[in-house]
């Protein structure tokens, strides 16, 4: 058992050292490639003036492209800002309309509730006038049914 453990440990150490060696090799290769490319540019058959002119020209082209990218980015951001502003104003308008609708429904509910109270008071006044009990009962039942219908309609519109 101990022997197997030692073998596994030796294999792990070997794998770790192989990983480290391969990582070092990759870093060395990358650095060597960069140094080689720089040396190739500097050792090119062009004269120093020609090489500097080429570098300056490439720098100018790169500046122009960067300026174009910046302008494009500014245009896109302005467009996105305009779209966001439009959507927020539309959302604000929608919220205002909905809140006005709720206020209107609440006012209608209160008005209908007051009308129901007035109808109830009228019923009480009619019942006190002195009609026959059968007529009073029919009138009261009819008024109660009308009141109930009006109340149900008001409740439906308020709940919507």
Report the order of strands and helices: HHH
Distance between the termini: 79 Å
- The strand count comes to 0
Strand content bin: under 5%
Domain tally: 2
Stretches with pLDDT under 50, minimum 5 residues: none
How would you characterize this protein structure?
The protein is built from three helices and no strands. The mean pLDDT is 76. The radius of gyration is 45 Å and the shape is rod-shaped. The protein has two domains: 1-43; 44-159, no CATH class. With 160 residues, it is mainly α. It comes from Rossellomorea vietnamensis. This is YtxH domain-containing protein.
Q: What's the topology here?
A:
Elements: H1 2-42, H2 48-129, H3 133-159
Helix pairs in contact: 2-3
Question: Could you give a quick summary of the protein structure above?
Answer:
The protein has about 160 residues and is mostly helical. The protein contains three helices and no strands. Helix 2 (about 50-130) packs antiparallel against helix 3 (about 135-160).
């Amino acid at each position: 058992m101990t022997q197997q453990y030692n073998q596994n440990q030796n294999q792990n150490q070997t794998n770790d050292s192989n990983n480290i060696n391969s990582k070092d090799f990759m870093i060395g290769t990358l650095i060597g490639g960069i140094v080689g490319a720089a040396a190739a540019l500097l050792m090119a058959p062009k004269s120093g003036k020609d090489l500097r002119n080429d570098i300056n020209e490439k720098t100018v082209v790169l500046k122009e492209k960067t300026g174009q990218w910046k302008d494009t980015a500014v245009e896109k951001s302005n467009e996105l800002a305009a779209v966001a502003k439009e959507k927020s104003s539309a959302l604000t308008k929608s919220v205002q309309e909905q809140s006005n609708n709720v206020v209107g429904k609440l006012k209608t509910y209160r008005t209908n509730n007051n009308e129901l109270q007035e109808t109830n008071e009228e019923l009480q006044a009619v019942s006190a006038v002195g009609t026959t009990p059968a007529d009073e009962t029919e009138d009261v039942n009819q008024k109660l049914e009308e009141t109930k219908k009006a109340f149900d309609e008001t409740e439906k519109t308020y709940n919507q």
